[in-house]
Amino acid sequence: MSSPLENLKPQLVWRHFDAMLQIPRPSKHEEQISQHVISWAESKGFQVKRDAAGNLVVRVPATPGKENAPTVVLQGHLDMVAEKNQDVDFDFLKDAIKPRIEGDHLYATGTTLGADNGIGLAGGMAVAEDPDAVHGPLELLMTVDEETGLTGAMQLDPSLLEGRLMINLDTEEDGAIYIGCAGGSTTRIRFEVFREDAAAGSKPIHIAVRGLRGGHSGMEIHENRGNALKCIARTLNALRKAGVDFAVVSMTGGSKHNAIPREADAVLRVAAAHEAKLKEAVTKIEAVLRDEFGEIDPNLKLEVKAAEGDTSKVWTNADRDRILDSLLACPNGVMSMSRAVAGLVETSNNLAVMEMDGNKVEILGSSRSSVMPSLQGAVEQVAAVFRLAGAEVEEMDGYPSWKPNPNSPLLGVAKKVHKELFNKEPHLRAIHAGLECGLIGEKFPGMDMISIGPSIEGPHSPDERVQISTVENFYTLLKGVLKTLAA
């Protein structure tokens, strides 16, 4: 069966990415993709090194005559975010991604595509074997577990790398060169709830938030997309305000710390005489939420149906109220804009995940900032909200920002090459998301870094898509910069 990618250009890049679509590689499960890379490198005669964390470096010899050029590190990550629509039957540990082309865009079918960061990896592998590419010595650095906290980069063995010029291949905007990124930190919140018997005669009701776009909590946070956990909290608050007699069996939502939650669920027990009042209140709050988010999330909806499963035990109203109030009070979205870079989100928080295990409720918040003291301030604010509600709060280890260097020699080369190739200056950007550049820069003082990539929209959600035509631009720029550095 032929692949829809087989006729796309540049063929080498798409061939490598097509192979990745067949290989499961969710975060913390990179063994299969690692073996694929190792087998490929050995088939080409390239040396491979691997550190204790699982990070790979493939050493690619220089084009003949360019052996004395500086070594360049091409860096990306092996893992991908494993997100799917609730109605899609898909196992990220076994199944191949199913791509489809619509116009100038490549999508997956009901799941994340993995263009983040598969296209970047494919670009590095392609240039290593491209007979038309001219380059000095290359080190292809492929890290693990980037998407769940950049743990591969945190544990990177400094002895793996010799190069001090690095091109990160993990940004997502054609025509732009990225020179800085935010730092980030996760806050883990734990509540213990007390359960009591549900009121006799009460009805089990399931309220679901559906249809939100979700997305990357750094890349799309400025768009003020709907957050499913905030929406479900506001829905239950509307029930309280309307005087509905209800108790909570469970509340859950979100699945990844770095993704804006798209779906959330609340299972309730509702006094039978109040079922109509509940439905009326849900209809009203749905209209409010659609009025607020309709332009950015036009498919937002609240579903009400009979709940299934064991609903015999409910939270006490005291637990219901303290958890609900803390969700309402938790900062979410953009907290401040940068005073140094126009249009850049400086600090944000994403109310990311809510899970239950018996009487335990766990919530994750993901804070980001390009200013490290502001990041700490955001984490402290989130922690304070939940401590006031009686939660146990753990501030997890974060990762550093990457401070822009507009005088970078590597940036100077990239700007010159971009102007020569495309007859226009590139946009210089900093990103409100975590790139591994910050951590790698800490481990390798003096590392000169830039980041480039094709246009990718909706990463970390099943709406993820890559603009096909920009992949060729990305690859052309990469080859052009390597050729100039080799000269």
Q: Give the full name of the CATH homologous superfamily of the largest domain.
A: Zn peptidases
Number of domains: 2
Structural Rg: 24 Å
Structural category is alpha+beta
Mean pLDDT: 96
Number of beta-strand segments: 23
CATH class of the largest domain: Alpha Beta
Task: Give a verbal description of the structure.
By secondary structure, the chain is of the alpha+beta class. It folds into two domains: 11-182 and 401-486, Zn peptidases (Aminopeptidase, 3-Layer(aba) Sandwich); 185-395, Alpha-Beta Plaits (2-Layer Sandwich), CATH 3.30.70. Helix content is 30%, strand content 27%. The protein has eleven helices and 23 strands. The strands form six sheets. The chain has a six-stranded mixed beta sheet, with helices on one face. Strands 16-17-18-9-19 form a five-stranded antiparallel beta sheet, with helices on one face. Strands 4-5-23-22 form a four-stranded antiparallel beta sheet. A hairpin with a 5-residue loop joins strand 1 and strand 2 (56-60). The two termini are 43 Å apart.
Write the topology of this structure:
Blueprint: H1 11-21, H2 31-44, E1 47-50, E2 56-60, E3 72-77, E4 99-102, E5 105-108, H3 115-129, E6 138-143, H4 151-154, E7 165-168, E8 176-181, E9 183-192, E10 195-197, E11 203-210, H5 228-241, E12 246-253, E13 264-270, H6 275-293, E14 301-306, E15 313-315, H7 317-329, E16 333-337, E17 345-357, E18 360-369, H8 372-388, E19 392-395, H9 409-422, E20 427-431, H10 437-443, E21 448-451, E22 456-457, E23 465-467, H11 468-486
Helix pairs in contact: 1-3, 5-6, 5-7, 9-11
